[in-house]
Amino acid sequence: MADDCLFCKIVAREIAATMVYEDEDTIAFADLNPQAPVHILVVPKRHIPDIVALGADPETSAALVRGIRAVAEEQGLSDFRTVFNTGAGAGQSVFHVHAHVLSGRPMSWPPG
Ligand code: 5GP
Ligand code: ZN
């Protein structure tokens, strides 16, 4: 657990969140500021700052993809968008890697 990391605190249940999924390596919870009718954050329990660092950890990478798959399956999502913001310039505001899983409305392309 990293000091002062919001998502580590959610993993540790020190900050409340609406949990939608948990397994040994990942948790998923509702985004506080949803951008779609379904907006779930899938997070490894291990503190890893971003997808670049995640790529150096094959086991956690696979675990996170399994978590995304499980969330989609459990929520009955056939069409959904998965986003990893990386770096403040791309919109990352929490530096504990997380997949945004967005669904329930049409998704335009290119993204904003
Ligand atoms: P990022 O901007 O890093 O890609 O995504 C961070 C996400 O975390 C944002 O979509 C934001 O709404 C969400 N978020 C920020 N603080 C909290 C919180 O305390 N609880 C939950 N559930 N989501 C949060
Ligand atoms: Zn963390």
What would your notes on this structure say?
This protein is of the alpha+beta class and 112 residues long. It has a single domain, classed as HIT-like (HIT family, subunit A). Helix content is 25%, strand content 21%. It has helices spanning 6-11, 51-54, 58-75, and strands at residues 19-22, 26-30, 38-44, 81-83, 99-103. The chain has a five-stranded antiparallel β-sheet with strand order 1-2-3-5-4, with helices on one face. β1 (19-22) and β2 form a beta hairpin. The longest helix is centred in the middle third of the chain and has 18 residues, at 58-75. The chain starts with 5 loop residues before the first helix and ends in a 9-residue tail after the last strand. Bound molecules: guanosine-5'-monophosphate and zinc ion. Residues 6, 15, 17, 29-33, 41, 85, 91-94 line the site of guanosine-5'-monophosphate (5GP).
Secondary-structure element sequence?
HEEEHHEE
Oligomer description? single chain
Question: Biggest sheet: strands side by side, in what order?
Answer: 1-2-3-5-4
Q: Which percent range describes the beta-strand content?
A: 15-25%
- What general form does the structure show? globular
CATH architecture: 2-Layer Sandwich
Number of helices: 3
Task: Give the total of domains.
Answer: 1
Mean pLDDT: 97
- Note the main sheet: 5 strands, antiparallel
Bound molecules: guanosine-5'-monophosphate, zinc ion
Name of the CATH homologous superfamily: HIT-like
State the end-to-end distance. Answer: 32 Å
- Overall SS class: alpha+beta
What's the gyration radius in Å?
13 Å
The CATH C-level class name: Alpha Beta
Remind me, CATH topology? HIT family, subunit A
Uncertain spans: none
Question: Roughly what percent helix?
Answer: 25-40%
